[in-house]
Amino acid sequence: KYRYQSSEFQFIGFDELTQFTESQYLYLFSRRRRLKESKIPIRMRAASNPGGVGHEWVKNRFNVLGKGGKKFVSALLDDNPYIDQEEYEKSLNELDHITRAQLRYGNWEVNPDSTLFQREWFEIVDDYPRNIRTVRWWDLAATEPKKGKDPDYTAGCLMAEKNGIFYIIDMKRVRRSPLGVEQLIRQTAELDTKSVEIFMEQEPGSAGVNTIDHYAREVLKGYRFIGIKTTGSKALRAAPLSAAAEHGNVKLVRGEWNKAFLDEVETFPIGSHDDQVDAASGAHEQLSLSNIKNVVIAPSGATRATKQMFRGY
Questions:
Q1: What gap in Å lies between CA 23 and CA 61, rounded to an integer?
Q2: What's the CA gap between 70 and 149, in Å, rounded?
Q3: Could you read off the pLDDT of 159-169 as tens digits, one per residue?
Q4: How far apart are CA 27 and CA 24, in angstroms?
Q5: How many CA atoms lie within 13 A of 313 on its CB side?
């Protein structure tokens, strides 16, 4: 920084400010000056992505989370009409998930020390015990992908437990229309067979009640299905799964879905998506419960009066 000690600038600009230390940045304020009669404005400007040696001080100085302070203008790839967004997206997809979250989504919160899970906690195994209690938990979304948008996924976690060891057998993860989601859930139930208990988060209010009632009467009639009201934050609900994983008690059955799941859990709860974690947390909670008397079979002729049975524990 002292190489500029005798310099005089009316404008100083930093590109990728997070690659500089706070001391380097602040020192250059001493180089901002002009002649007494000059009308040239004195300015200091900077641009940056998250990450780098200066990540924390830049985030704090400019209050990038929108809590006041120095002016910060957020912009993402979608805001740049002059770049080939599709090709650049392909390039960013080659990065590790943390760097990609920073460069693609401008995520200032994600870092290796701020999440509930570490990917090395999950041993990948080739098989799992049969004839044990198995559940499928669905976390619903019904938004198809559109250019420039990154909507939530519908995720369905198939999990089993034996002697305190939890096995994530399969993970469905799709973006489809409401009808497409229903078709997937019905087909998955048929493939899982009726030995698998099916759970789904019941959203608050009458809309949540109606959704569960619809699935019970129309989509999953004849299957063991129940809607569950959840409480607390997503991170709070994921804490038991995190603890089990940290102790080596959560295994992943080898499959193509493994990498996407590990990428998501490693950035939870501040990553771009949490649908798979929500589904896995729900399945883990149900398998951890000793009392399953409220699991019911949705009768073929169910009416709206049956919705009282599907409101959870």
A1: 13
A2: 29
A3: 999 999 999 99
A4: 5
A5: 13
Which pair of structure tokens corresponds to residue 144? Answer: 């198809």
Query: Residue 158 CA to chain centroid, in angstroms?
Result: 18
Domains and CATH numbers, the chain: 9-105 (no CATH), 119-310 (3.30.420.240)
Under a CB-based contact definition with an 8 Å cutoff, are residues 165 and 311 in contact?
no
Tell whether pTM > 0.85. Answer: no
pLDDT, tens only, 52-104: 889 989 998 988 877 666 888 989 999 999 999 999 999 988 876 778 888 99
State pLDDT tens for residues 278-312: 999 999 999 998 534 444 445 444 444 333 333 33
Sole residue written with tokens 């524990």: 313
> Per-residue DSSP letters for the chain?
-GGGTT--BSEEEEESGGGS-HHHHHHGGGGB---TT--PPPEEEEE--S-STTHHHHHHHHTTTTSSSS------GGG-TTS-HHHHHHHHTTS-HHHHHHHHH--SS--TTSSS--GGGSEEES---SSS-EEEEEE-------TT-----EEEEEEEEETTEEEEEEEEEE---HHHHHHHHHHHHHHH-TTSEEEEEE-SHHHHHHHHHHIIIIISTTSBEEEEE--S-HHHHHHHHHHHHHTT-EEEE--TTHHHHHHHHHHTTTSS--HHHHHHHHHHHHHH-S--TT--BPPTT--GGGGGGGS--
